[in-house]
Amino acid sequence: MASAILKRVSASAMSSLVESIRIGASSRNFAAVAVGTDIVSAAPDVSLQKARSWDEGVSSKFSTTPLKDIFKVCSSILRGAYTGVCSQQHVPSYNNKIDEFKAKGIDSVICVSVNDPYTLNGWAEKLQAKDAIQFFGDFDGKFHKSLELDKDLSVALLGPRSERWSAYVVDGKVKALNVEEAPSDFKVTGADVILNQI
Amino acid sequence: MASAILKRVSASAMSSLVESIRIGASSRNFAAVAVGTDIVSAAPDVSLQKARSWDEGVSSKFSTTPLKDIFKVCSSILRGAYTGVCSQQHVPSYNNKIDEFKAKGIDSVICVSVNDPYTLNGWAEKLQAKDAIQFFGDFDGKFHKSLELDKDLSVALLGPRSERWSAYVVDGKVKALNVEEAPSDFKVTGADVILNQI
């Protein structure tokens, strides 16, 4: 199922802002990440930025976290998201099911977003999701670019962001991958789908 | 005083993260904006994005606001800012003095930030500043680039942002301009300084 999604092509390109409810429908295949990919090898030298307050950022001397430290021996659910559907559906769908992920032996549920870590922290706090989910910023988009999951969403006044996607990762290896046809869709990246793939 | 600030050079370049408390100290002069500059002419074809919720963004078909509609006949205080000092000092300093600006005949206090308009909206709501201040996003940084007030703050995990600055603008013309030596400084761009320049 994941590979079917990977091989998909967009049914229709977005032709006007009137159709913007499906923002960023894509006609691209994803070459850099697939089932079997080692996330750490696919994005060498990439670090993420743990969500935190500005003051914590200053105290930490703006430290970052290498991917290998995030995906060491563990099973993780990794999700990429952006403003909008994300706040109302995507993050809550995982936040509400955290006990089911734990019951299946998942060590960590991780949300990576093309945002600075301070914005991401404020957003995570507003969603009351920090206890269940680890939030990491990808402020320069390097992680998503490495995986070819980056997406220009300037049409929605967002600039360079990411596809909406989810992955089940064990010891750094991708075991399942789901990518929405358009980042404004929420069909294959919710918690229920990936719970069935574990 | 404003022109003295425009001509300033940085006392020291930032040499390590240990010195990051003064993030982004600059050695650049500002050629594109000065006292007397017409903001609309200096940034032709640039629009800003009124801060709003994601749902309002979708409803508005992601509309933007041309500079000429923001700076038509009126006197405005314009401020550029970013996360950090901004939340604790910069925005509150204007929010708390709004009555003094009104008493001096200022029509609008405007905050422009290199953020998407939804993030900016969430931040403005958290600061309880939306009644006093108009917030506009500059998500792609075009406004700040046109004025040569853009600034790479990747060292603070923020990416392309802006200088910290304030301006007193009448009918689009800059009457006073203040730019901090480093965006983490808060010496010349607070409400008290510009109140004395009106």
TrEMBL record, chains A, B:
Its EC number is 1.11.1.25. Residues 43-191 form the Redoxin domain. Keywords: Antioxidant, Oxidoreductase, Peroxidase, Redox-active center. It comes from the Eukaryota. It is an enzyme of class 1 (oxidoreductase). It holds the Pfam family Redoxin. It catalyses: [glutaredoxin]-dithiol + a hydroperoxide = [glutaredoxin]-disulfide + an alcohol + H2O. Belongs to the peroxiredoxin family. Prx5 subfamily. Thiol-specific peroxidase that catalyzes the reduction of hydrogen peroxide and organic hydroperoxides to water and alcohols, respectively. Plays a role in cell protection against oxidative stress by detoxifying peroxides. This is Glutaredoxin-dependent peroxiredoxin.
